[in-house]
Specification:
The structure holds two protein chains of two kinds. Chain A is about 75% helix and about 0% strand. By secondary structure, chain A is mostly helical. In chain A, helix 8 crosses helix 10. The longest helix of chain A is centred in the N-terminal third of the chain and has 36 residues. Chain A is globular and about 85 Å long. Chain B is mostly helical. Helices cover about 70% and strands about 0% of the residues of chain B. Chain B is flat. Classes of the chains: A mainly alpha, B mainly alpha. Chains A and B meet through helix 1, helix 6, helix 7, helix 11 and helix 12 of A and helix 2, helix 7, helix 8, helix 11 and helix 12 of B. Chain B: InterPro entries: BP-dependent_transpt_permease (IPR050366), MetI-like (IPR000515), MetI-like_sf (IPR035906). Chain B: This is ABC transporter permease. Chain B: Belongs to the binding-protein-dependent transport system permease family. Chain B: Keywords: Cell membrane, Membrane, Transmembrane, Transmembrane helix, Transport. Chain B: It is found in: Cell membrane.
Chain lengths: ~325, ~375
């Protein structure tokens, strides 16, 4: 077990190293001159040459990569190329909490809604509610988050007027207001995950409910709710935990889109704006930070899976 | 009438295969004539009700809200009716949702291919629509059945040309993914050892960046045109293709026909190309079917973020993003028209893809 964990960690480090190299190499793919992008057009050739030298563009590729990486490890991801040209790290540390809050809220909503629905579905398999839920989840999986977000805004904000639009209230200005403004974006993020969770959990629960120990519990006269929550849920949640890694990736995707849609100041709006403006240090920094979070989270899920489900310790890796 | 039958009638007709499977099993037992006749009767009634309601919804007689409601009810009744007629006529194999999906895809693909020949209004050139009315509401019997956007460009024409770019990009990306990813996967699986290890690290590294973030990063350095967007999407498709190809190669290279080929003196390249590749192709193609819908969503997301194909060239994503801000408060159809096209297409591809996956026994690998 320890060996598996060590192997896993080494693999994660190698992967992160390759990702950082790839992220850095993106810049050399850019058409055009970064010094022109930074200073604007119409300066003298000397000024451009000076800017290039300042940015270290005359050094060989690996020297530049090493400078960038060692800076990144110390928390310095360089400066933005777009005015006001502040440090990338500052922008990211301002934006990251917003995204994390949205993602966590989305995940929470998805799980809280998915578990009872999946349980009901599995318990009453083949009934019309089960079929309606299955059909809805299949439908929801075909709606991209920017579309569901716009539809939610259309109904909840414009038509019903229940929620405000396009504003972000920091936690420091009041938790209640903060949650109130974050709830609609979080619902939008949660939809796809919710549908995925329901599908996975339902199919696993259906299998578990056929097991003998469930029959025993039923024979003992356990109540339905107790049966589902205390006996059936735990052995049915392993696929869900395995899926969390994949779900996390799709969630980061929806967070990006939802932030742009609701104009919230998170990582998503940050990276999209940077990409539109060609602000490469910002894009690199954001991609690196997101990749590190994603890879580490996936690694933790992989490793914890071995502890949660003893069966997988041998078979895995 | 038995209780299960009551259930069937009360069931809201959401489309979905799980629902059809569950229902079809019960209905498969309806072999005896009485039940079948019952199906025919209810089916006919529901179909008739559906046609009437949907017809009422289309005709401009009532208020807008009522029309939409009646139209939707009509469609649901129509779906339930036709499904029952189909079950009665063709037995339990009848899968109406699948048939409708195939029909939609056929119509869409034909329309996309024949778009320049169809009698469509202007979709791209704003100089030709200076005189046209902007934000014309959809009205089925006018010259702009689905309305116009702020430049007076026709929404139907834009949706169909949008289908063109979506389909081209998605199919090209999946094709590139199958070719490159399949080749790399077969090499890694067949040679094993350090080739396999390096390929493994590279695929894991590609998968280490969430799909949309990778796409945005690529889009920030590439010029947004059809070719580059296809390549960027192919980068997303390659890792899953490599994994599937590698896994299948590992299985097939243990089989007798590979041993036989090697015993007959076939070179490694010949074994990979003639013996393994044709076998690996099938699971790759079926994964490709599922992935087309993922690619369509990815392309639409990129266009929506303003990083994909640029307006005025229409794609569903940038059409939907035209409705951002306050536009869709007054003109909801600006979002709804491309949205419905996108939803139906993704749904249909998911449906067909899932059927293909069930036949070849794989699972979904990517999801944005």
């Amino acid at each position: 077990m320890t060996r598996t964990v060590i192997d896993k960690v080494i693999e994660l480090i190698v992967v992160l190293f390759v990702v950082s190299l790839g992220t850095f190499a993106l810049v050399s793919l850019i058409p055009g001159d970064p010094s022109v992008a930074m200073l604007g057009e119409g300066r003298s050739p000397e000024e451009y040459a000076q800017a290039r030298a300042d940015m270290g563009l005359n050094d060989p590729f690996f020297t530049r990569y090493w400078d960038w990486l060692s800076g990144a490890l110390q928390g310095d991801l360089g400066n933005s190329m777009v005015p006001p040209q502040g440090p990338v790290t500052d922008s990211i540390s301002a934006a990251l909490p917003v995204s994390i809050q949205l993602a966590v809220m989305g995940l929470f909503i998805a799980i809280v809604v998915a578990i009872p629905l999946a349980m009901y579905s599995a318990r009453h398999q083949g009934g019309w509610i089960d079929r309606a839920i299955s059909a809805c989840t299949f439908g929801v999986l075909s709606i991209p988050s920017f579309l569901s977000g716009l539809l939610l805004i259309m109904v909840m904000v414009n038509y019903l007027g229940w929620f405000p639009r396009s504003q972000w209230v920091r936690v420091s200005e009041g938790l209640g207001q903060n949650l109130y403004h974050a709830i609609l974006p979080a619902i939008t993020i949660s939809l796809l995950e919710m549908a995925m969770f329901i599908r996975i959990l339902r199919s696993d629960l259906v299998m578990t409910l056929k097991e003998n120990f469930i029959l025993v519990a039923k024979a003992k006269g356990m109540s339905n709710a107790r049966l589902l929550f205390s006996d059936a849920l735990r052995p049915s949640s392993f696929s869900l935990i395995t899926m969390l890694g994949i779900v996390l990736g799709s969630m980061i995707g929806s967070t990006v889109i939802v932030e742009t849609l609701f104009s919230l100041p998170g990582m998503g709006s940050l990276i999209v704006r940077a990409a539109q403006q060609g602000d490469m240090p910002m894009v690199q920094g954001a991609v690196l930070v997101i990749a590190v979070i994603y890879v580490v989270a996936n690694g933790v899920i992989d490793i914890s899976y071995g502890y949660l489900d003893p069966r997988s310790r041998r078979a895995h890796v | 009438m038995s209780e299960t039958k009551m259930d069937d009638i009360d069931m809201p007709a959401f489309t979905g295969r799980v629902l059809d499977d569950a229902g079809a099993e019960e209905l498969a037992n309806a072999k005896d004539l009485a039940e079948r006749r019952n199906l025919y009767r209810i089916g006919t009634i529901l179909t008739a009700v559906g046609v009437v309601c949907a017809g009422l919804g289309v005709l401009p007689m009532l208020v807008m809200g009522a029309r939409v409601a009646i139209f939707v009810v009509g469609l649901i009744a129509l779906y339930m009716g036709v499904r029952r007629l189909g079950l009665a006529r063709f037995g339990s194999d009848f899968d109406l949702t699948f048939i409708l999906s195939c029909a939609w895809l056929t119509v869409l693909i034909l329309a996309a291919i024949l778009a320049p020949l169809l009698p469509l209004a202007e979709h791209e050139d704003t100089t030709k629509t200076l005189a046209a009315k902007s934000y014309a509401s959809p009205s089925l019997f006018s010259s702009h059945p689905l309305g116009t956007n702020n430049f007076g460009l026709d929404m139907l024409a834009r949706s169909i040309y949008g289908a063109r770019s979506s389909l081209i990009v998605a199919v090209a990306a999946v094709a590139i993914g199958i070719l490159i990813g399949g080749a790399i996967g077969i090499l890694a699986g067949y040679f094993g050892g350090w080739v396999d290890r390096i390929v493994g690290i590279l695929t894991n590294s590609l998968l280490a960046v969430p799909a949309l973030i990778l796409l945005i990063a690529l889009a920030s350095v590439l010029q947004p045109n059809l070719r580059n967007v296809s390549f960027a999407l192919a980068v997303l498709a390659i890792p899953s293709m490599v994994r599937i190809a590698r896994a299948n190669t590992l299985v097939f290279s243990q089989r007798e026909f590979v041993l036989a080929a090697r015993a007959m003196g076939a070179t490694r390249w010949r074994v990979m190309l003639r013996e393994i590749a044709p076998n690996v192709a099938l699971p790759l193609l079926s994964l490709g079917m599922v992935m087309i819908s993922v690619m369509i969503v990815a392309e639409a997301s990129l266009s929506f973020l303003g990083l994909g194909i640029q307006p005025p060239s229409p794609t569903w994503g940038n059409m939907i993003s035209e409705g951002q801000g306050n536009v869709f408060e007054q003109h909801p159809y600006i979002v709804l028209v491309p949205g419905v096209f996108l939803f139906l297409t993704v749904f249909a591809f998911n449906m067909v893809g899932e059927k293909a996956q069930k036949k070849t026994g794989g699972t979904r690998e990517v999801k944005l």
